[in-house]
Amino acid sequence: MSLSMLKSNPVFTNFTSKDRDNWGAAVLNLKHRLHEDPLFSEDALADLIDRSPQSNYDLVTMGAQTGRRFWREGEKGSLKGHEIIHAIATGRFWINLRRVMDVDERYNTLLNTIFAEIEERVPSLGKTFKHNMGVLISSPNAQVYYHCDIPGQSLWQIKGTKRVYIYPTTEKFLPQEAMEGIIIGETEEEIAYDPAFDNEASVVDLEPGEMLTWPLNGPHKVMNHDCLNVSVTTEHWTPAIRNSYAVHFANGMLRRKFGLNNLAHQTDGLGVYPKLALAAALKAMKANKSLTNKRMIDFRVDPSAPDGFVDIEAYDRAA
């Protein structure tokens, strides 16, 4: 992307030199134009739902904000996109449309535009790769539990308002052993949470036209306000993120398979290369075992039901 294009039609509308210097090192709340893009109108999103195969979406219902931590997965059945959005607006669940750039080339073009601009604005980031874009449509008062993500992550608000809590990446909030467990597949993205953590969180009420990005693996949780929410998530990798992933993977396997402790998380210099090689070898061995957790589907969207869905006989999503 040329500097002239950045000036005439930028994705970001308030990007400063301070934001450039703090990218990846601090929580940034920036302004954007995605909420004005026709790709995120209700008609466009309904069409995207209609075109997304089950392999490209997750339908999830969650527990009450003050209740037990759990979620269930469901299916959209024969309903159309507008019906799904209506059920979400009046129910208690969300749909996560994954890898939308694989479903519609227009989202791929937008995704490439976003990262071309980010790379232009943040030269220290270097060349990014493995870009991903998802669209999350979620019910009023829905929540996403305390968790962390593996790649670089940004959250772009399109419709509604949500409160986002972002926590430090210190051992207190993100124990190294827990991070290793996520990366080697022992657990999903969830990590142990203490309500007292909120006292040290950065808290943002994210409005349409705002986005958040934060330090790599930063733990966070999300609570919708009492309104339908539409958000976009983007992910990226860099050589530094790849190195961090590989070191966590190698350390996790060394800790669990060989009982080693006091493992360093060095991600640059000569010391990282043995762990990069070890991680590649161990990951290949682990993949050959073909171990996967069952993910059961046990509800179907129903706009006439009180919570927007009805129970069905459970079946394995992978079956």
What tags apply to this protein structure?
319 residues, alpha+beta, ten-stranded mixed sheet, four-stranded antiparallel sheet, 9 helices, 14 strands, 31% helix, 26% strand, disordered N terminus
List the helices and strands and how they pair.
Blueprint: H1 3-8, H2 17-22, E1 28-31, H3 42-51, E2 57-62, E3 71-75, H4 81-90, E4 94-97, H5 100-103, H6 105-121, E5 129-138, E6 143-147, E7 152-159, E8 162-166, H7 176-184, E9 202-206, E10 210-213, E11 220-224, E12 229-237, H8 239-258, H9 272-288, E13 296-301, E14 309-316
Parallel strand pairs: 3-13
Antiparallel strand pairs: 1-10, 2-3, 2-4, 4-5, 5-12, 6-11, 7-10, 7-12, 8-9, 8-11, 13-14
Your description of this structure?
The protein is of the alpha+beta class and 319 residues long. The protein has helices at 3-8, 17-22, 42-51, 81-90, 100-103, 105-121, 176-184, 239-258, 272-288, and strands spanning 28-31, 57-62, 71-75, 94-97, 129-138, 143-147, 152-159, 162-166, 202-206, 210-213, 220-224, 229-237, 296-301, 309-316. The strands form two sheets. A ten-stranded mixed sheet has the order 1-10-7-12-5-4-2-3-13-14. A four-stranded antiparallel sheet has the order 6-11-8-9, with no helix packed on it. Strand 13 (296-301) and strand 14 (309-316) form a beta hairpin. Helix 3 packs across helix 4 (81-90) and helix 8 (239-258) crosses helix 9 (272-288). The model is unreliable at 1-5 (pLDDT under 50).
